[in-house]
Amino acid sequence: MPSHPRKLRMRGGWVYVMTNKPFGTLYIGVTANLAARIWQHRNGKGSEFCKRHDLKRLVYAEQHTTIQDAIAREKAMKAWNRNWKLRQIIDANPEWLDLFELINQ
Length: 105
Fold this sequence. Notes:
Elements: H1 5-9, E1 13-19, E2 26-31, H2 34-42, H3 48-53, E3 57-64, H4 67-79, H5 82-92, H6 100-103
Antiparallel strand pairs: 1-2, 1-3
């Protein structure tokens, strides 16, 4: 039986950033299931952009109460200039660690 539509809206969401190396190519995405989506990217089943640029390292993630909030934040971050995006990553993850290992435990 499908979930009630109100429950789907309450699930929350994630905004995340994938890269290939520190200060490399960046991809900003949004998802309701962070671990599953990052697994897809790492296995070539995510976006074509990530596949083409070999973006397999999760370097930034932020959780939002609703998927709508996450989508709004994703759109805002995509409009930022590159230096703002880099600053956001560096402030949260100065060593550019692959955070997938932390969420996949």
